[in-house]
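Supplementary Text 2. Reproducibility record for the structural model of the 258-residue chain.

All settings were left at their defaults, and a single model was retained for analysis rather than an ensemble. We include the record here because the model underlies the residue-level annotations in Supplementary Table 4.
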Amino acid sequence: MKSLQLERPLAFFDLETTGIDPGSDKIVEISVLRISPDGTRETRTRRINPGRPIPAGATAVHGIRDQDVQDEPEFRQIAKGLLEFLEGSDLAGFNVRRFDLPLLDREFRDCGQDLRAAERKVIDAMLIFHRKERRDLAAAVQFYLGRELEGAHGAEADIQATADVLEAQLERYPDLPHTVEELAGWDRRHPDDVDSSGKFRWKGGEVTFAFGKHHGRPLQEVMQTERGYLEWLSGTDLAHDALQLVQGALSGKLPSRD
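Retained model, structure tokens:
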């Protein structure tokens, strides 16, 4: 780490899991990169048997199946060695404060071990990214208008700033359309998109996936063959209208293209 002064080892880690609940889901793979103050790097990666079936939705994300971990150790069997590897280290990762660290800490506690997370410094690159590269109205005002947003979160100040930002965007980007009808549809990635984020697309009169492992497959077909994947999707941070499509499919309601 040429740009970061290390007084003790820094351990970057990432987890693949059975789901997205740090309070109950289990680890199926862990990778740790331990960087010492002298620059020495050591990486350890280990698949783990979670002791329960891996949901199809989770497998769709990380590709790890039940048969891939059936002969691997359970977490309790590797916990002591992992703690020794992390001994004296601070921790780092992407989204670790909200997800990976709470889940890892719980896995240790479940088998009677103590990560002593409160005694370790934690760096979360995602939080730095979100703070330094903001995407809120105040950031847009600063970027497009070159000024601070005064009276932020006051309704009148916010709508005036939004109008000013839109005007600045139209002036800045010559490829933007200048009619309401055209501009309202400009951010749709494809004329056949069903939802605002372009996750689903009309194809042959059916709603089909436009992302992920099921790209090009009808939503109804995936519902019939891999319901678990849709159940997992329904708990993710998809855009609201995309979530409505998934939830509608789960309840047997699919839109038709008139």
